[in-house]
Design a protein that fits this description.
The chain is an alpha+beta fold and about 160 residues long. The chain contains 2 helices and 10 strands; from the N terminus they run H-E-E-E-E-E-E-H-E-E-E-E. It has a single domain, classed as Immunoglobulin-like (Sandwich). The longest helix is centred in the first third of the chain and has 21 residues.
Length: about 160
């Protein structure tokens, strides 16, 4: 019985350690005390009301784009981005500050298979849909981009204005 208890607590410690390692390592702006808060807000709560904003990803005439590419938000508003990839290629959306996304884009060039499973990002295969719920707690101008190498440069970015 005693032995079993020890085994259980070791497992618990390992599980906790694993979770810490699995937390987003390449999401700048995090880790300022409150874990999830960033310069552009924080992950939303799906149980709370959210305004739906549909964003479509696609390619057109050698360009790649988000429709719309300009989204206005009131500070404090929670947005549910309803995402659809209408293109022929994989695409992703990464919400961040412009500086962070530009830096991240360079990292992606070195490591193109980097997968984004963070609350501020979603990667979609062609003809699939997804969602991001984000709570915009801070005013400012932020960026959303597809950081798959070559895509942002082909036009795949937009601006979120939080007033
Ligand atoms: Cu893309």
């Amino acid at each position: 019985m005693q032995k079993q208890l020890v085994a259980v607590s070791v497992v618990a410690i390992l599980a906790t350690g694993g979770a810490a390692i699995a937390s987003p390592g390449h999401a700048p702006g995090q880790g300022h005390g409150h874990a999830a808060e960033t310069a552009y807000g924080k992950p939303g709560d799906p149980k709370k009301p959210a305004r739906i904003v549909q964003v479509t990803m696609r390619e057109a005439d050698g360009k790649m784009l988000f429709v719309p590419d300009r989204i206005e938000v009131r500070r404090g508003e929670q947005i549910k981005f309803v995402l659809r990839n209408n293109g022929e290629l994989d695409h992703e959306i990464v919400l961040a500050t412009l500086a962070e996304n530009l830096k991240h884009m360079e990292e992606m060039k070195k490591n193109p298979d980097m997968e984004h499973d963070d609350p501020n990002a979603k990667r979609l295969k062609p003809k699939t849909t997804g969602e991001i719920v984000w709570h915009f707690t801070k005013a400012g101008e932020f960026d959303f981009s597809c950081l798959i190498p070559g895509h942002r440069e082909s036009g795949m970015h937009g601006v979120i204005i939080v007033k």
